[in-house]
Amino acid sequence: MQSLWKSLLGGAASSSEDDLIGRIPLFEDLTGREIDAVRRLLHRRDYVAGESIFVQGEPGLGMYIIVRGAVSIQSEPTGRELVELANGDFFGEIALLNEVIRTATARAKTDCTLLSLFQPDLLSLLDRNPRLGVKVLLSLARLVGLRLVEVSDEVEALTRECDELREAAGLSTDG
Amino acid sequence: MAEVLADAPPAVLPPQDGGRARGPDRAPSGPEPAHAPPATTASRLSAWATAAAVAGLVALTVIASDIASLVLMGAVLAYLLMPLVDALERRGVERVLGAALVLTGVLAAGALLVALALPVVVGQVASLQVRWDNGELLTLVSNAEAALAARLGFVEAHDLGLVDSIREAVHPEAGPLIGYVPDALETIGNAVVVPFVLFALLKDGPTLRRRLLAFVPNRYFEFAMTVVYKADASLGGYLRGQALIALLVGASTALGLGVLGVDYYLVLGLVTGLANFVPYVGFVVSAALAVLVSVVTTGGMDQVAAVVILYVVLQTVENVVFQPWITGKNVSMHPVLVLLAILVGGKIGGVMGMALGVPAAAVLKVLFLETAVGLRRYHL
Questions:
Q1: Which residue from A12, A62, A78 is facing B207, i.e. has the nearest CB?
Q2: B222 touches chain A (CB under 8 A)
Q3: Which residues 96-155 on chain B approach chain A with CB closer than 8 angstroms?
Q4: Which residues span the domain enclosing A44?
Q5: Which of B218, B221, B373, B377 to mutate to test the interface with A (most CBs of A within 10 A)?
Q6: A6 part of a folded domain
Q7: Which CATH number goes with the domain that contains A20?
Q8: Cα dist from B237 to A133, B80, B83, B244, B371, whole Å
Q9: pLDDT tens track of chain B, all 380 residues?
């Protein structure tokens, strides 16, 4: 009877997963209690190497965080790898913030364990526990911001390269 | 052609490079050929497991249909009350405590309602019983029948056979009260089951959904998530809206009938409110019942016009004010579909089936639409 009450009243205990979640950059700032609340929103999924997680062009509703393993983000239809992600990285965050079609394909490069966070769950967290919801969102915004800085640096470098090439080409056609 | 290639055993090409190199033409047709065989076996296995689980669930529902309906009742109540627990959680109350508080509140409110309204309702039912026992009601019916016959002209007084059919309909049910004791024991059992299920679902509902979703194979996972969330939003909104509307309609019906001076207005209001869970049909049935009661109790047609007008006005108010305001566009279904859902639901599960037919159809609609989209957009 005691176990019945325990299982009825208590939550599912899995502190080892809590540790994993606490080490993910996105959730670094959270307290133990908050991590526990976030854990209840996340879906844990296991993939074998080569399995696709989502495919470019599909409607997307959430993001994935890599707990273990490596994931390749590819551009269809060529299958060219855009980036390889590993432990602690996250991807698909655009769909989390805005329900859109996937802009790239994500494929497991090795066997991997992912945690997924879905838009309706994030929205319900914001509704039920705004303080924690804002903390998660802020952390997400920071990381997305960092990524944006990296991308704009890259764009700048590429633009410069393009200009140089154009100049070189222009010079060569003129000459 | 591409699909045939993708599904064929990958004997020819080495796994990784082959997949990468042949990416372009094979991209839309699904998983890596290198991993197709284990995936297919696994998905076939999981399909069998799912089929077995569903079959088991259906069998269990058929065998223990009364228990299933209790669990269903608890689930519906949990759906209705979930926002309260969420609201408490928002104010920093743990989910366990919130669920306990909400359950206590519901039980207290129920007890209060029973304590306040039961004497009146019991009084009204008892007076109905007394008037039935001394034959007063049947006399009134036969008077009404005679009046109707006189007015219509073309029917003889006893052609309608109203008295006989009513007597036949009521008699088998009217046993002595002592016969209800085993039922009462069962009712107590039920009274425990429903709050138990209610509490468990209020506290663990979201977690439970997550655990069930964990069984969905990777390839269908995002699709399943989308279906679950959309069905959830549609179902929850519908049930909560209907409950609120039933409350409003029931209360205003009781009030209106009371003002009109119709006997048994509380019972009629209660019945109308509950019947309102069944769109269209519930309204017609409860209006007919109210007209019948007013004819029988007054022995004439004096109140009929007023009662009919009251029901028409209330129905109009419900459709023009309550429905758009409360349910909004939670369930947008064609009226023909709604009627079909009610009829099929009634065939399957009686009155409860009728009430739950529409939400069930709404879920099926979401499932159907999302599957249609899924076949097009997801590479299932």
A1: A12
A2: yes
A3: 96
A4: 13-174
A5: B218
A6: no
A7: 2.60.120.10
A8: 23, 9, 11, 11, 22
A9: 333 333 333 333 333 333 333 333 333 333 334 344 444 566 667 677 778 888 887 877 777 667 777 787 788 888 888 888 888 877 778 888 888 888 888 888 888 877 776 777 677 667 766 766 666 666 766 666 666 666 655 555 555 555 666 565 555 444 444 445 556 666 666 677 778 888 888 888 777 878 888 888 887 888 888 888 888 877 877 788 888 888 888 888 888 888 887 777 777 888 888 888 777 777 888 888 888 877 777 766 677 788 888 888 888 888 777 776 766 555 567 777 777 888 888 787 777 777 778 888 888 888 888 777 777 766 55
- Closest-approach residue (CA) in chain B for A130: B90
Cβ contact B373–A59 (<8 Å):
yes
> How far apart, in whole angstroms, are the C-alpha atoms of residue B80 and residue B106?
11
Domain count, chain A: 1
Single-letter amino acid code for the residue at B24: P
Report helix, strand or coil for B106: helix
Distance CA B53, CA B59 (A): 10
- Contact (CB<8Å) A128/B210: no
- Is residue A124 in some structural domain? yes
Q: Does B379 touch chain A (CB under 8 A)?
A: yes
Among the partner-chain residues B23, B225, B377, the one whose CB lies closest to the CB of A61 is B225
- Between CA B344 and CA A135 the distance in angstroms is 48
On whether residue A3 sits in a domain, the answer given is no
Q: Do A52 and B32 touch (CB under 8 A)?
A: yes
ipTM of the complex: 0.72
For residue A8, tell me if it sits in a domain.
no
Selection from A11, A35, A131 nearest residue B99 by Cα: A11
